[in-house]
Protein: PilZ domain-containing protein
Amino acid sequence: MPENAGVDYPEARTVVDLLATSRGDVLISLVESADPTEIVVSIGEDRSRRRVRLDVGEHVEVIWRGPEELRSLPTELIAAELHPPQWRLRPVGPSTRGQRRSAVRAPLSLQVRMTVGPDVLHGLTVDISEGGIRALFAPRDRAGATMPETAAAQPAEDLPAEQPVADLTAEQPVADHLSHGEAENPLRVGAHLPLAVCLEEGQELTCQGEVMRRIPRKDGGIELSLRFVGMPEKTQDLLRRHVFAGLRSLRSRGLL
Structure:
């Protein structure tokens, strides 16, 4: 059976994540060349953009975005070269073939803004993936003003049991028949609203967010699951790297 670039192994010039057995963080790299027998990548960099050292024989998982899903390939480091600075990786097993991609989510608390008509709501993410967020926003008062941002972080009491968040990258049907009141609700399921997510590094990611689910609360907060719409691929790659790094950090501290 012929092997396909992009599916069975990453294509050249693809940004990849490298998970080395000896390290607890995600390394970022760029594929220089690739075929079914060998993958040449730039030397992996950590979150501080510093090149790292790995020993020959290290097991390295290569993760990249395929045509329709995330792909993962187990490899072995067979050579580390300095001129030019690159690693040579040899596949030691088949790439992981999944069903429709289920984006990795991390329980990270990041500041987020959402524009709803004339109002700007401020809140915090409950979790985040490259596909979307679950976020809690401060309630709007009757005059439409936004409550102080700290209100978003206050826990609700006597809430219903938490429900699993659906895969935000998967297509979900929106109700065809809405009541007149629901059709006018700016936070109705299916509504597209401007979003801005602030990463810890001071970077701000902007896109449209589609309301996928409203989570009921008793404290007046607005909790939503939102799917990112119109986010450029480079921004998705940046966010995916941030999610992987966040997960690694939480695991290294024993929080996951």
Residues 98-102, 142-180 have pLDDT under 50 and may be disordered. The chain has two domains: 15-91, 111-250. Helices lie at 180-183, 233-252. The longest strand covers residues 70-82.
